[in-house]
Amino acid sequence: MVTLKEKNKFIATLLAFAVIPMSGLSTDIYLPSMPSMAVELNQPESRIQLTLSIFLISYGLTQFFAGSIVDSFGRYKVSMISLALFVVSFIITATTQNIFIIYAMRVLQGILSGFAVVSKRAFFVDVYDGDKRKHYLSIMTIVWSVGPIIAPFIGGYLQKNFGWQSNFYVLAGYSLLLFVLEFVFSGETLKKRNPFHVEYLIEQYVSMFKTKDFFYGMIMCGLSYSMIMFFSLCGSFIIEHKMGYSEVVAGYVSLILGFAWMTGGFLGKALINKAFLPKIRYANFIQLAFIVLMFIASYFLSNIYSLVAFAFCIHITAGFVFNNYFAYCIGRFPESAGVAGGLTGGVAYIITSAVSYGIVAVIRPQVQLEVAEGYFVLGILGLFILSMIKIRKAHI
Q1: Considering the domain boundaries, does residue 65 fall inside one?
Q2: In the Cβ-directed half-sphere of 245, how many Cα atoms lie within 13 Å?
Q3: Beta partners for 188?
Q4: 260: domain CATH number?
Q5: Is residue 1 included in any domain, yes or no?
Q6: φ, ψ for residue 195 (rounded to 5)?
Q7: pLDDT score at 333
Q8: Host domain of residue 293
Q9: Whole-number mean pLDDT of the chain?
Q10: Where is the Major facilitator superfamily (MFS) profile domain (predicted)?
Q11: Best label site of 13, 77, 307, 394, fewest CB within 10 Å?
């Protein structure tokens, strides 16, 4: 087994950061292309939106067992296999017109993302400790947000000039480049292999689920990211089909909102030493205040500028909550970093896929007011979970 050499530690760390945004790139790069895909593939909007949701579901489910696998068989081999299969799956997606083959490839890509991202999350726990570990885990969530920032921006121009298939060709090329660089510079970082037994895995999961701060943290991560994915599912259709703007504009909107998410992450890192639960509650109250203002403003002002302005503020708070809770949950069980990271991501993304797609399916947002309704449901759910945490602490 090729182990990571000390001289390559810095480059391997950069490569780990380059792999982390893969899930965001895979979901967001084709957001501006979704309306065009619906037209070219002769499919209703809901079927194209489903390509995003099934990716998130498979991505989330994979992380339940991916963590145990990378803790048992190592990070490096799993990451390399995932990157190689990414290349194949993205090329197939780009070359087919069959929606069911696209569904199958999106399921596979979600699975591969789960393995690749979980292995790289564990990398930081393997290689760093103490304050450095906390530092890199916090930076990791910020870097992860780079995918949703740059992907739709690039995707908008790819769609305008080359069509929706070009998105997946670019992803294939990116995966191939990472595969080559990982082969040259990276290596195995796992020091102690845990046995891969179903009973052992279930035992760890039960123990983690019984840890209430960890359990509530996973739920808050899912609800926070649901706000982002909710807009991703409906935003491009509203901007392109209802407001009449181009796919490039839709890409710019996603770029702006991606910066909002990253801003929330930077705020989370800047306030990392502040009391944990009070800052989360403040963020939730500020979030609900912006949502209420969005409701009121929708009766007087409803255009692309007001829509993006309110979404920007709301996404900052969502990014702040996610950054804090995700870093907390991943570092909660350092002796089983792969399993903890996998379980956190798995639960968070299953919640995200189910809640965001469910809200879009029920509300079917077409205007700013209906987007505010979706945000409001998510904000109230977050308030409910935080209230449960406060009540539980009061009885301890």
Answers
A1: yes
A2: 18
A3: 3
A4: 1.20.1250.20
A5: no
A6: -65, 140
A7: 80
A8: 6-185+197-394
A9: 86
A10: 12-396
A11: 394
